[in-house]
Amino acid sequence: MRVSVIFHWLFVAVVLGVLVYTYFSFRQTEGQIAVTAMKSNYTQLSRYVPDNRSLAERRQSERMTLIKEYCRENDHRNITFPPLRRFVVNERHKLLYCQVFKTGSTTTLTILHNLEYNKHRSTVGMRKTFDRQPIKRLKNYTKEEVRLRFEKYTKLLIVRDPLERLVSAWKDKFVEAPARFGFWKSYQSMLETIPLNTSRPQESIKNSENVTMHQVPFLAFIKAVGTNRTEWQDLHWELISNLCTPCQIDYDFIVHTESLAEDFPLFFKKAGIVGMDRLLPKTRTREGNRLFWDFYKDVPMEDLHKIKLKFKADYDMFGYSFDDDITEMLNH
Fold it and tell me: N or C: less crowded end of the chain, CB within 10 Å?
């Protein structure tokens, strides 16, 4: 009798144990399924969450990310830190701007000058007041003041497509600007890059030593820039990545010359500048494809490839594409 009772209770215990184990196993699996489903649903839903940022905001995010990725993946320890005179300071709004020629720098200086002195002057008007209301530069500050401004101020960098910037530099310094003859004299040796039997440019002038100087044609300029000869280097066509070292300086905002009018309103917003929209740059028609075709159509692909290699850091760091530039030119 006792044996049968013992077996009875053992059977009941086993059955209860199986039931309890099955119950808790089911609850655990159900929880896992629920969590997995929740994660899956969240992932699915996140794909359809709209990006409510403006085009300028999305571009800005992409530009900043691209620079950080480039600097993380490339060695930049040999890049020399820029001279302090290159940085323009705006004290009223706590701004720091690394000036790069041929990127819309004159427009930017005019904006920063007007912001500093609460004026609405033209570029000509700004230049007339330099003695009384100068452009402030970082070279005039103490070491501690410099350090604080790099840490605390909103730092601005403006970049430009390398091929467009080279055209702008050549047009300004060898064709249009009053000081072009000085550039002719300084870079007459660029003519060495084209064959002697190449017809010389029509425009020429005799200097004070009665020596005839020829205008440097665009082809000779591009060939010279594509080399590493130090006598043909100049700030007006030096790499922006060398001039302002974005891998050493944590810039807060990156403007593209090609979208200057679209980028500056967002820059004002990020920098907390309000009530000064009258100073924003106006939208201008870009020369675009015609510019590439007119100036680069006679440049051999071999020389263009040298430009691509020389300006590779600017292309990669700032999101420009040499191949896209050439495609646009060929499709003109």
Answer: N
Let me know if 185 is exposed, middle or buried by CB neighbors in 10 A (0-12, 13-18, 19+).
middle
Structure tokens at 269: 């917003």
Of 177, 170, 138, 203, give the one whose Cα is nearest residue 291.
170
How far apart CA 107 and CA 151 sit, in angstroms, is 25
Strand segments (E) across the chain:
87-90, 95-98, 136-137, 154-159, 204-206, 212-214, 253-256
pLDDT tens column, 72-105: 999 887 889 999 999 999 999 999 999 999 999 9
**Residue 65 and residue 69: Cα distance in Å, rounded?**
6
CB distance 219 to 194 below 8 Å: yes
- In the structure encoding, which two tokens stand for residue 97, read together? 């701007």
Joined together, the tokens standing for residue 210 give 């009665």
Rounded Cα gap, residues 257 and 183, in angstroms: 24
pLDDT tens digits, one per residue of 154-172: 999 999 999 999 999 999 9
Instruction: Determine if residue 252 is left, alpha or beta; phi over 0 gives left, psi from -120 to 50 gives alpha, anything else beta.
Output: alpha
The region of weakest confidence among 41-55, 75-89, 264-278, 303-317 is 41-55
CA-nearest of 98, 195, 218, 228 to 150 is 98
Which amino acid does the sequence have at 63? R
**Around Cβ 292, how many Cβ atoms within 10 Å?**
22
Q: How far apart are the first and last CA of the chain?
A: 105
Is there a contact between 156 and 253 (Cβ–Cβ < 8 Å)? yes
DSSP string, 91-103: TTTTEEEE--TTS
C-alpha span between 170 and 221 (Å, rounded): 7
